[in-house]
Structure prediction request, 554 residues.
Amino acid sequence: MRSETSQSSAHGAHGYQSTPHVQSSAVHLPAPPPRLQRPRASTLVILAVVLGLALHGLYRMDIDYARLLRGPENIWDFVTGAIPPNTERFSTLSEAMLETVEIALIGTVIGVVLSVPAALLAAQNTTPFLPLAYAMRFVLTTLRAIPDLVWALIFVMAVGLGPLAGILAIAVDVLGFAGRFFAERIEEVERGPIDALRSTGAGGIAVVVDAVLPAAFASFTATSLYCVEKSIRGATVLGMVGAGGIGGELTTAFNVRQFDTALLIILMILAVVLLAEQLSSMVRRRMLGADQLTRAV
Amino acid sequence: MSTPVIDVRGLVKEFPNGTRALSGVDLQVTAGETVVLLGANGSGKSTLQKCLTKLVRPTSGTVEVLGTEVCTARKREISALRKDVGVVFQKINLVRELSVLTNVIHGSLGRVSSSRNWFACSARSEQREEAMEALERVGLAHVAGRRVEQLSGGQQQRVAIARMLMQQPRVVLADEPVAALDPRAGRAVMDLLWEVTEEQGLTLICTLHQLEIARDYGSRVVALRDGQIDMDTHMSRVAEEELEGLYTAEDEVLHAL
Prediction:
């Protein structure tokens, strides 16, 4: 009853004729909006462009649908050829896998270490010079926009075949990713403690080390762990362009149609990537502590 | 009467959005004096405090603090001035992720320029001892090794006072130091603040909005209203109604809602 009266008085406030009878206020209700509305012009344009591109692509690429039909047959060849996986070269492959993990770890460490100064320059609240922050952002975006496989190609060209190119490719990829996330975290750091240290007369570097970095540290660690995960995933294919690790073995196995070896490699990659994910989420749990992870809602 | 350590004349502050926070404030404070700044939200008391160390740039008027003419001083002079002015914040503003001892040692960062003092583990023995003394003074020497976030709000504000002592300032600005604390912890912090400033002969300007606390601690009371000094007198001479009057404008707004 109470809610009904408040409803009618609310209508009164909106300029409708208020009546003593609660029921009659329903007569004055405006019609509800229509169930369907005409889509906006911009929606139609976007839809048309997407559809047009798709149709144009199918026409231009001149796809041979017979090949599509042969697909299942070839996959069946692969499956029968791959099972059971061939463990003959397991020790050699393990070595290549170890190299992949090491490329990922070393590259990530280099990338994360470089990300801290890069982020301090890129964050608007710690940069010494605002245009420098924009320039740094642009550099980081560029590093991120170029895929790690392309970086690997570039570094193979620069330093030759082998794991060094892989390490550099991973480092650059991590720098682009972690640099941005670190910078964003730095920009979120609470103003108060920074002002407090400033007001004691502390210098800029002291303020960064003592107020900015401690507040951002937990988030830096979480981002770095994710980078390790991401780098291991990325490093498994770097070998395909000759930048070291297990990827080279995978390409070779496919080229010589040793599907049983290829399957072993794929299973090994799967195991290592899953393990890396588990490890990183375990470390994260430890870091956050039990309190943060108890159900809050 | 000695020369004032704080001498504010005709201070006006107008913000870019047109808000006139201060319109012609005069205030003289002598060395070792304790002043309570009273006023409702938006009366200009925080702005006045911020003008003293040029955290807010005055629009017109003169502000002289510890012999430094704030409005015309160079950057270097301002940072020298800030080293002599300790600040206690309403929001405490300790670095929560670091240890209590590290936070107290931070107070010495302006005074002793040594990167060893960035963290308690690497700090010079001299500053470590000074910091322990400061912590002992606020009664928290036993939690020196804990992380700040593990302490209660009242304890944190006491650590902030220890940090302020570590700075060895001559003037202390406290901006509603107990607004975020429960009444009992608030009293403990106020007692401590009043005691330490008296011991060290520091000049203290403390903004407050809780009338009861102001009544118990205030000696000289300066009340602001709409950016102007409404009264500047001794607490014992203020009638109850006058104090209540400072907040009526705000109360009326509340009742009208």
